[in-house]
Every structure is written in C-alpha cells, then in structure tokens.
From TrEMBL:
One of its GO terms (molecular function) is alanine dehydrogenase activity. This is Alanine dehydrogenase. Keywords: NAD, Nucleotide-binding, Oxidoreductase. PROSITE patterns: ALADH_PNT_2 (PS00837). Residues 149-297 form the Alanine dehydrogenase/pyridine nucleotide transhydrogenase NAD(H)-binding domain. It comes from Saliniradius amylolyticus. It is an enzyme of class 1 (oxidoreductase). Signal peptide: none annotated. Its EC number is 1.4.1.1. One of its GO terms (cellular component) is plasma membrane. Residues 4-137 form the Alanine dehydrogenase/pyridine nucleotide transhydrogenase N-terminal domain. GO terms for biological process: L-alanine catabolic process.
C-alpha cells in the first residue's frame, strides 16, 4: 500500500503522523511511504532520517493526497485537506466530528473512509489511541494552569504547592479518566490540594486505590460542581462521552462565583468543551478571560510537546496502522471490532452513533452501522 504523511497545518502543530521508526516498520512490511518535505523537521525528524527509513519525500501535500491510498495524520483535516480526499482513500487520524459540522460535511462529501483515533477501542473498554495524548494533555494541564495562576500571566498569584505556613492551592479535576488521573498526578506532585469529580462509581473506586488518600474523590453532581468550583484555584475539564459533544458541566453562574484570577483548563475542548464559556484557542493565543477567570482551551495541547507526543502517539497507532496496510482497510476493520469502532465516515455514510446524535438532524444524515457500510 502507498501511505502518505502530510505535514500538519494546524496552528503551532508540530506533530507528524509517522516517526522515521514507524516508517521503517511499514517499509519492512512491504509498503511504500511518502512524507511531506520537512514534515517532521521541527521536532528533529529530518528528511534524511525519513529517507534512511525508506520513505520518499514529497514536495507538496497535493502530491500526497493525489497518490496515497492511506493518509496518516495527527489532527483533524482542515477544510483544504478534506477537499483533497477522495473515494477509495483511507484517512487515519484524530477527527473529533461531533462538535464540528463543517468537517463532518466535508468528509461525507469526500467519499473517503475516515477512521478516528479517538473512537478506536480496546478489550478493557479504553480508548488506546486517545490515551497517550490524554496522558500528555492531562500532565500539561497542571503545568499550564500553574503558569497562568502567576500574577504576570493574569492569574491570582497563587502557588499551587503553597509553602510551609501557607495553604496549597486547590485543584478541581472534573472527569477522572486518563486526562484527569494524569492531571491529578502532576497536581499532587506540586503539593496542591486535589479533588476529582467523576460520575462513574467504579472509576471513583479505582481512583481511591490509585491515589490512596492523596486526593478527594467525589461523585459528580450539580451540587458538587457548585461547591468545589467556588473554592478552586485551578479547574481541569477532563470529561468524555466517547465520540460525543462534551456535556457543559460548569455553568456561567458557577464561573461567576469563582475567585478572581482562578484558572480553567478545558482539555475536553476538542469535543466542544465542558465549561459553558469555553471556546477553542490555539498555542499562539491560548487564553482569554470571562468574569475575571482565565480560560485556557487549546484543542491540540499535545502539539505543545510535539516530540514526546509524536513518539507516544506512534507507539499506539502503529499496530492498527500496520493492520490497515497489511490486510487492506476493509478486511482489517471486519477482523477487529476495536478498529471497526474507529470508523466514523465511509463512502458518504456516517457510521458512528454519537456523531449522528450530535449532527444528523442538523446536516440531514442518519446512522449506518459500520459493518453494513463496509458491506461485511
Ligand atoms: N485538548 C487536547 O489537546 C486534548 C483533549 N483530550 C480530550 O480530553 C477529554 C478526556 O479524555 P480522557 O481522559 O482520555 O477520557 P476518559 O474516557 O479516560 O475519561 C473521561 C472521564 O469522564 C467521566 N465523566 C463522563 N461524564 C461525566 C460527568 N458528567 N461528570 C464527571 N465525570 C464524567 C467518565 O466517567 C470518565 O472517567 C476528551 O474529550 C479528550 O478528547 C485528550 C487529549 C488532548
Ligand atoms: C486528542 C487531541 O485532540 C490531540 O492530541 O490533539
Ligand atoms: Mg467571580
């Protein structure tokens, strides 16, 4: 199979779909790989390294989109990329369609087979291709929060760890999954006072075991959100209903009641955000204020540590990517229900229920079962 790896074009996005090491795996399995000129250069993956791994270098994205049978990316395709996709081509990347009608419409029109990293599943009910980026974003969320709590960066001037004689800052994590757990680990490491809210009792039990008394783990209700948010210095939004638009858990009233100079980091912004006042921002211009509360809502946080993130992402995407290339996308998905769960759009049909629930009525499409769409 001919695999194409274009350079990412989202604001300050320096990750790339395949590392040179991953290219070598595809080439060893008998595939051909085209990588866009300097696609990984910003994070130290040079054209020479890609060539040594067996790739050819394409001078422009158009050559890749015209020829490749499978496009491997990181971020959701931007409109000009969507327009270059065609029927018979497979797109393997993050999509986040539920909050994004424009992209959804363009992918339907393209006729391409679009597999979303964030909805591929594993045997234990996890999301193995989202998990590494959630680990990164969870860890970064507290780093970003601590930075914006500094007075010169617009915050209240609170040190999360406190010092002997002064109480630590309060961190509230809403959603105790992968992002939430990693945020909590960093916040504990800094010495903060950490509360995690989740609405899953089994998950709260696991958090109790993981953190062994070092966090308060509380069942998530409207009342709990109201109570803990009013006291928090930093709130990390980390909820997920897979593939669906994020529920707005923190209301404008909750935000008004927060202390001046507190910080919100809405990691769930890639699924639309879980705070009422959230709107997506970029690494270039990451924050804005509402009601004297700093909002950090960067939709591609791992892009900020692109070298670590690219390697972590490739560790997870490579085995599924090889299966897609070795067996062909259709057979690979029919053989593996977890990879099949990643299929969101195929030949103009939307095959992911939560995307249909979010956008079907607005855009006029209905749900097609993934297996049926593939003719399996
Ligand atoms: N902005 C960025 O750059 C990045 C964003 N993300 C996003 O972060 C979000 C979280 O991802 P993960 O931690 O991997 O998901 P996860 O599935 O591991 O965890 C989500 C948690 O939210 C909980 N939850 C769901 N509804 C809730 C509610 N109403 N109240 C409290 N808890 C609730 C679930 O029980 C679960 O424990 C996702 O939207 C993901 O796409 C992930 C990586 C990077
Ligand atoms: C998951 C996601 O949105 C990212 O890694 O950018
Ligand atoms: Mg206020």
């Amino acid at each position: 199979m001919l695999i194409g790896v274009p350079k990412e074009i989202k604001n300050h996005e320096y990750r790339i779909g395949l590392t040179p090491a991953a290219v070598k795996e595809f080439v060893t399995h008998g595939h051909q790989v085209m990588v866009e000129n300097n696609g990984g250069a910003a994070i130290g993956f040079t054209n020479e390294q890609y060539e040594q791994a067996g790739a050819t270098i394409a001078d422009k994205p158009e050559s890749i989109f015209e020829q490749a049978e499978m496009i491997v990316k990181v971020k959701e395709p931007q409109p000009n990329e969507c327009k270059m996709l065609s029927r018979g081509q497979t797109l393997y990347t993050f999509l986040h369609l539920a909050p994004d009608p424009t992209q959804t419409e363009l992918l339907i029109e393209s006729g391409a087979t679009c597999i979303a990293y964030e909805t591929v599943t594993d045997r234990s009910g996890g999301l193995p291709l989202l998990a590494p980026m959630s680990e990164v974003a969870g860890r970064m969320s507290v780093q970003a929060g601590a930075h914006y709590l500094e007075k010169a960066h617009g915050g209240s001037g609170t040190l999360l760890g406190g010092v002997p004689g002064v109480a630590p800052g309060k961190v509230l994590v809403i959603g105790g999954g992968v992002v939430g757990t990693n945020a909590a680990k960093m916040a504990i490491g800094l010495g903060a006072d950490v509360t995690i809210l989740d609405r899953s009792l089994p998950r709260l039990r696991q958090l109790d075991d993981i953190f062994a008394g070092r966090t308060n783990n509380v069942f998530s209700t409207v009342d709990a959100i109201e109570h803990y948010s009013a006291r928090a210095d930093l709130i990390v939004g980390a909820v997920l209903i897979p593939g669906a638009a994020a529920p707005k858990l923190l209301t404008r009233d909750n935000i008004r009641a927060m202390k001046e100079g507190s910080v919100l980091v809405d990691v769930a912004i890639d699924q639309g955000g879980c705070f009422e006042t959230s709107r997506a921002t970029t690494h270039q211009d990451p924050v804005y204020n509402v009601d004297d509360v700093v909002h950090y809502c960067v939709a591609n946080m791992p892009g900020g540590v692109a070298r670590t993130s690219t390697m972590a992402l490739n560790n997870a995407t490579l085995p599924f990517g090889l299966a897609l290339a070795n067996k062909g996308p259709k057979q690979a998905m029919l053989d593996d229900e977890h990879l099949l769960a990643g299929l969101n759009v195929h030949e103009g049909k939307v095959t992911y229920k939560a995307v249909v629930d979010a956008l079907g009525e607005q855009l006029g499409f209905s749900y097609t079962d993934a297996k049926t769409a593939l003719g399996g």
